[in-house]
Amino acid sequence: IPAMIIVGFAILLVVLLQMFFKPTRRELVVGLFTAFVATYFFLTIIGTFFRGYGMELQLYWPWEELQAAE
Fold first, then answer.
1. pTM for this one?
2. Which residues are within 8 A (CB) of 37 and not within 5 positions of it... i.e. 6 or more apart?
3. Backbone angles phi, psi at 25, to 5 degrees
4. 20 CA to centre of own chain
5. In this structure, are residues 10 and 32 in contact, taking their beta carbons and an 8 Å threshold?
6. Distance, first Cα to last Cα, the chain
7. Rounded to 5 degrees, what are φ and ψ at 51?
C-alpha cells in the first residue's frame, strides 16, 4: 500500500504539471526530481528535529520537559 501511495502522488504531480505548465519531457523529469529532493529534505528535517523520547513524533520542542528533569 505505501508503494501505491507514492506512485499515486507521482502520477498526481505529473497530471498537475501537465495541466498548468505544459512541460516538455525534460521539464517534467526536472519537476519530479525537484519534488523528490524537496520531500527528502522535508522528511529528514521532520524526522530529525521532532523526535522525542522513545522516538515518538512530537510537534513541539520539549524544552519544558528538559528543564523540569534537571
1. 0.68
2. none
3. -60, -40
4. 22
5. yes
6. 44
7. -100, 135
Separation of alpha carbons 37 and 53, rounded Å: 28
φ, ψ for residue 17, nearest 5 deg: -65, -40
Q: H/E element holding 64?
A: helix 63-69
Q: DSSP for 23-47?
A: --HHHHHHHHHHHHHHHHHHHHHHH
DSSP 65: H
Half-sphere exposure of 47 (CA within 13 A, CB side): 6
Q: Is 70 helix (H, G, I), strand (E, B) or coil?
A: coil
Q: How far apart are CA 58 and CA 40, in angstroms?
A: 19
Residue range 17-64, pLDDT digits in tens: 999 999 999 999 999 999 999 999 998 988 887 777 777 777 666 556
